[in-house]
Design brief:
225 residues; Rossmann fold
Length: 225
């Protein structure tokens, strides 16, 4: 059974007196545990596709199913808890909450979902990525690599079915990029999560189970199983 099925997704925006199409009739299916890479030039629609698939934005037309449940028309009150339980997010710019320390940042999604073991789970993840000694440090006290490791822990604390990553190594140097990618792939295997990752990197794409290339808002290369 597919974990994610997107059908004929189109996303348009109104700009002054005209309509801009960012995605045009994109369909794809993803299986549980799969590692899918989405590639394309700037402006090709990669990030827009990721935000639609993850429920952070809604398509202008088309349908999205997660484990056969359509999420396209869920209200935000319905979508927010579903998103928190089902998806994890890793962004290029980390998006850690400045006023929370590393441990509190990782705990946050678990606390939102009412998990009584939020602290225990967060501390275990931070230990797994070598941040135990830094758990009480705030984001401005962490290096770029440490911030991204904390962000990965936050993405995994609710044991999501699908992990979405948007250029997760884009702001890191080569050494940290390699470490972060290895960490993502190791944790994905350990937890059996599906990984959908946007990247410009050919090296990262070569590690994926499947690659999807967007050009001008449409699928230019890649197959839907």
């Amino acid at each position: 059974m597919m974990i994610l099925d997107a059908q004929n997704l189109t996303r348009t925006y109104a700009l002054e007196n005209r309509e801009i199409t960012i995605l045009n009739d994109v369909s794809l299916s993803v299986f549980p545990g799969e590692f899918l890479v989405i590639q394309g030039n700037s402006g090709s629609g990669k990030t827009t596709l990721l935000t639609l698939l993850s429920g952070l934005d809604r398509p202008t037309s088309g349908r999205i199913f997660i484990r056969n449940r359509e999420i396209t028309h869920l209200s935000e009150d319905e979508m927010a808890p579903f998103r928190n339980r089902t998806f994890g997010f890793v962004f290029q710019s980390f998006h850690l909450v400045p006023a929370l320390n590393a441990l509190e940042n990782v705990m946050f999604p678990a606390e939102l979902s009412g998990n009584r073991h939020a602290r225990e789970k967060a501390e275990a993840l931070l230990g797994r990525v070598g941040l135990t000694a830094r758990r009480h440090h705030f984001p401005h006290q962490l290096s770029g690599g440490e911030k991204q490791r904390a962000a990965i822990c936050r993405a995994l604390v609710n044991e999501p079915d699908i992990l979405f990553a948007d250029e997760p190594t884009g702001n890191l140097d080569t050494e940290n990029s390699g470490a972060i990618l290895s960490l993502l792939l190791d944790l994905r295997k350990e937890r059996g999560a599906t990984l959908i990752l946007v990247t410009h990197s050919a090296e990262i794409a070569a590690m994926a189970d499947r690659r999807l290339v967007l050009r001008d808002g449409e699928i230019a290369d890649g197959t839907t199983p």
